[in-house]
Amino acid sequence: MSDTAVRVQEIRALIAAHKRWDIVFGIVGLLALMVGVLTFAVLFIQMVIDGAPRLSWDFFTSFPSRRPGQAGILSAWVGSTLVMLVTAMVAVPLGVGAGVYLEEYAPKNWMTDLIEINVSNLAGVPSIVYGLLALSLFVYQFGFGQSILTAGLTLALLILPVVIVATREAIRSIPGAIREGAYALGATKWQTTSDHILPYARGGILTGVIIGMSRAIGETAPVITIGALTFIAFLPPAPVSSEFPYLSFEWIMSPFTVMPIQMFNWTSRPEAAFQHNAAAAGLVLVVMTLSMNALAIYLRYRLRKNLKW
Amino acid sequence: MIPLSHADWTDAMPKDFVSDKLARRRLRHVKERIIEFILFLAASVSVATTLGIVLILLKESFVFFRIVSLWDFLTDTQWTPLFADAHYGIMPLLSGTLVSSAVALLVAIPLGTIIAIYLSEFAPFSVREVAKPFLELLGGIPTIVYGYFALMFVTPLLQKIIPGLPGFNLLSAGLVMGIMIIPYVSSVSEDAMRAVPMALREGSYAMGATRFQTATRVVTPAAFSGIAAAYILGISRAVGETMILAVAAGMQPNLTWNPLEPAATITAYIVQVALGDLPHGSIGYQTIFAAGLTLALLTLFFNVLGHLLRKRYRQVY
Fold it and tell me: What is the pLDDT of residue A298?
C-alpha cells in the first residue's frame, strides 16, 4: 500500500470516529428526553392506580371527613373555583393593562426601565414569598383575613408577570402598519388600541392567561402561608340568592380551602386510605392543569398557523 | 368641477361648528390622558409588589432582629423557635435548602443541557414539535403532585436500593425536584442556542466539524450567557421550591450535609408555621419573615450572579 493510501485510510477512520460521537449524542439526547417522559408516565400511572378507585360522583360532592372512605373534595373544588374567579378578575385587567402600557404608551425613560426590570425579576421570586407579602399586607394590614379575596389577590400578583409577558409578546407581533392605518383615519391611541391592537392580540393574551391560571390552580405554598384552613366542611355563602338583592359578595370574605391544600392534608396523614384520597385529588388536579396547558398549546399552535400578516 | 372658495365653506357651516369640533377634540384628549394614566397605574402594580415584598420582609424581620441578634441567627446551630428552649440559628434550614437544591441541580443541569443541545442541534423537526410542548406540560404539573410522587413512589424505590433510608429524606425530594426543573433549564437554554446565528454553524461545518463538535465547541460557548441564565433560573426554582420538600423531606430542622437524612428547608419551615396556629405578632410569627428574608436574599444573590455572568460572557451578533 502506498503512503497516501495509508493516510487516506487514517483520515477516513478519524472522520468515522468523530461521526460516531454524533450518533452517540443523538442516543444520549433521546435517553435524556425519555427520563422526562418516563417520570411523567410513572407518576401518572401511579396516581391512576392509587386514586382511580376513589373517583366517583360522591368524591366530588362530599366534604372532607375523618373517615377516608366518605371524604370528598366538594369544599376544595368550590374553593379553587372561587379563588380562580377572583384571581382572573384581578390579574387579567391589570396584566393586560400593564402589557398595553409597556408596549403602546410607555415613553423611553427610567420609569419604564424600572417597570420592565421589575416584571422580569418578579417572575423569579419564590412563590412562598408572595405568601409572606399577603400574610402581612392583605391578612393583617388590610384586614381581609384568611379569605377567598386574600388568596385570589395573592395568586393574581403571582401570575401577573405571566400575563404581562404574554400580552407584550402578542402585541409586539402585530405589524406597525395596522396602527398606522388606524392613525391615518384619525383614530386616537386608545381607539387604535382597543379596536385594533387588542382584538388581534386576543389569542396570544388568552394563551398567556390560561397558562397563568393553570399555574395558580396548582399553587399551594402561598395559599398555605396566608393561613388557609386544611379542613373545611362547609361551603362559602352562595353568590346568587332568590331574595333581594339577589347577588351577594359575602363569599369573597369566607374561609376556604383549595384542591392542592386538600391533597397536601391527605398526603401528610399516615393512614394508607387517606393516601388514596390524596392520589384521587391529585389526579383531578393533574387532569385539570394538563388540559388547561394543552388548550393553551393548541391555541398557540393554531394562532401561529392561521396568522399570516 | 369648480373648487369652492373659502367663503363658500364658512357660509355653508353653522357659526359654532369649528369651536364645537375643537371642544370635542379637547374632550377626547382628556379621555386619552385618563386612559393612559389608568394603564400606567396597572403597570405600576408590579413595582408596588416588589416594594411591598422588600418593605414587609424588612419591617417584620426588623422586629425579629430586635429580639434575636444577627450573630446568633447566623451562627447558632439549632433552629427551635417553637420550643421552650428557643434557638434561632438559620444554619439547619439553610443546609437543608442547599443540600436539596444541590441534588436537584445535579439532575436538572446535566439532563436539561443535554436535552437543550439535542433539541436545538440534533433532533429532527417532528421530535422537536412533540418534545417541546411535552416538556412544557411537565413543567406545568402542580408541585404538590410531585411531592406525592416523591413520597409514595421514589422514596420506597430508593429504600430498596439504599437500605435504612428514612421515609423522609432530602435525596428523594431533591431528585424529583430536579426532574421538575428540567423543563425550565432546557427551554431557556434551547432558546439561547437557537438564537446563535446560522453563519457560525455553517462556518464550523465548512471547516469539516461534525454536528457534535459544532454543538459543543461553537454553539454552546456562543450561547453561554443564555445557558447561564437558564442555570440561574433553575437554582432560583430549586431554592424557592416548597411543597415537594414539605411533603417528602420532612419538617424537622437538621444541620446536615448528607442527602440521605431528613431535614427541613427554609420554605418547609414557613409552611409548617403557617399550618399551625401562631398568634399574630408573636416571635414565632416573626421567624417566618426572617426565614423569608433569608430566602429572598439567597435568590437575589443567585440572580445578581446570573446577571454578572451574562454581562461577562454576552456575545453580540
Answer: 87
